[in-house]
Amino acid sequence: MEGVNVSTHPQVPGEPTQTATALLEKATATIQGFGPITKIHQHLCAFHFYGDDMTRQVEAHHFCAHQNDEFRQCLIYDRPGEDGRLIGLEYLVSEELFLTLPDDEKRFWHSHEYEVKSGVLFMPGVPGPIQRQDLDKVAKTYGKVIHFWQVDRGDNLPLGIPQVMMALTRDGQLYDNLAQDVEKRYKVSFAKESENRASMKGPVHGIHPMANGGGRGLKTVLKEVECKTAESMARVFV
Q1: Domain encompassing residue 221
Q2: Contact criterion met (CB below 8 Å) for 58 and 147
Q3: Per-residue pLDDT tens over the stretch 60-91
Q4: Nearest C-alpha neighbor of 132 from the set 193, 211, 213, 177
Q5: Which residues contact 44 (CB under 8 A, 6 or more apart)?
Q6: InterPro entries from the xrefs (predicted)?
Q7: Which helix (H) or strand (E) holds 97?
Q8: pLDDT at 13
Q9: Which of the residue ranges 20-29, 40-49, 113-122, 206-215 would you say has the lowest mean pLDDT?
């Protein structure tokens, strides 16, 4: 797909970090523990698009940790450097766990088979044979992605409501220049890596028809409703 490079890196407003703040951060970092963060063991680069608009494509850097062998959770940044913006998160589950979800829930999850086998999902800096050992497992999983920061439209703060995102499922969807930009920066070839992953398999039962939005777009909307209060809830249980 042809198009413009829609992945941007807006400047966050605000004063530079002061020396006193930096010293305080250093002190608390020495004293406190960061258990959930220290479990992160993996950096994946991929691309997401908005559930209702495939033309809005975003480069997404996932920093992931396993909860167990069938569930991992990832923080998503727009770039991997220290100035990366935390733009979203993704949960990855095994096919077995995915199949336990209600059908209405399955629509929010996307398959990973194409992303892996096409080469567009990769681990920056990790030799191909090593990353393919894990990506062979990832190809069989499903993911649920929420983005909070629409950096592709230049927002310099996380504005609006969270957005359900989807992933690539076939050739011709990804912008050519977006792909070429990533290939150049990370010195990778999606086509060559795709050849090396040709023997990989997706979900044992095939990609579920309700996954990937059930084949339709998903638009995140905000609906106003009457808010339940503690007082009204108390009346319910009296």
Answers
A1: 36-233
A2: yes
A3: 999 999 999 999 999 999 999 999 999 999 99
A4: 193
A5: 61, 62, 64, 74, 121, 122, 123, 138
A6: OBAP-like
A7: helix 95-98
A8: 72
A9: 20-29
Q: Which amino acid is at 1?
A: M
Cα separation, 6 vs 96, in Å, equals: 35
AA identity, residue 160: G
Six-digit token pair at 158? 């996380």
pLDDT of residue 27: 72
For the chain, how many structural domains are there in total?
1
Beta partners for residue 64, in sequence order: 42, 74
CA distances 49 to 32, 45, 75, 233, Å, are 37, 14, 17, 39
Assigned domain for 24 exists = no
How far, in Å, CA of 2 to CA of 175, rounded? Answer: 5
The residue with tokens 């703060």 is 157
**Does the residue 176 lie in any domain?**
yes
The residue type of 156 is N
**Beta-strand pair 163-167/142-147:** antiparallel
Position 142 in a domain: yes
For 100-134, the pLDDT digits (tens) are: 999 999 999 999 999 999 999 999 999 999 999 99
For 7, how many CA atoms within 13 A lie in the half-sphere containing its CB?
Answer: 24
**CA 197, CA 119: separation in Å to the nearest integer?**
8
The answer to whether residue 204 sits within a structural domain is yes
Place of tokens 């994946």: 44
What CA–CA distance (Å, rounded) separates 133 from 56? 31
Q: What percent of the chain has pLDDT over 70?
A: 89
